[in-house]
Design a protein that fits this description.
Length: about 120
């Protein structure tokens, strides 16, 4: 079932989300200071491609720099990304068949708000 949901997600939402996150990652890596944000964007892009069967966990060893980076990210991009995920999940929840995709969209909010210090792991 996970594979079927991932394939449907990939076709209807995941590919476009991943392309957006990869482009943001490339732009962040071009600017030397924002390379950690670029790496986080690439990690989110991989998660956006195949979200079912994976989850986000916080790294307890993430230090103060990740906290400062998350505050900067949240102000500059995180709030807008989270709002975008909420807005796109609403029509998915309205349609009965799109409910699992809406849940996957909501699942991406924590990592889009605070990407530094987060790891994406398999559910197993």
């Amino acid at each position: 079932m996970r594979t079927l949901l991932n394939v449907i997600w990939l076709v209807f939402a995941g590919l476009w989300l991943a392309i957006g996150y990869v482009l943001a990652g490339i732009i962040c890596c071009i600017l030397i200071v924002t390379i950690p944000f670029g790496i986080a964007s690439f990690r989110i892009a991989a998660y956006a491609l195949w979200p079912f069967g994976r989850t986000v966990v916080r790294d307890p060893q993430a230090g103060a720099l990740s906290l400062v980076g998350n505050v900067i990210w949240c102000v500059v991009a995180g709030i807008w990304l989270a709002a975008g995920h909420v807005i796109t999940s609403i029509p998915l929840f309205v349609s009965i068949i799109g409910i699992p995709m809406g849940v996957a969209n909501i699942k991406m909010i924590p990592v889009s708000l605070l990407p530094l210090g987060a790891r994406i792991v398999d559910d197993e």
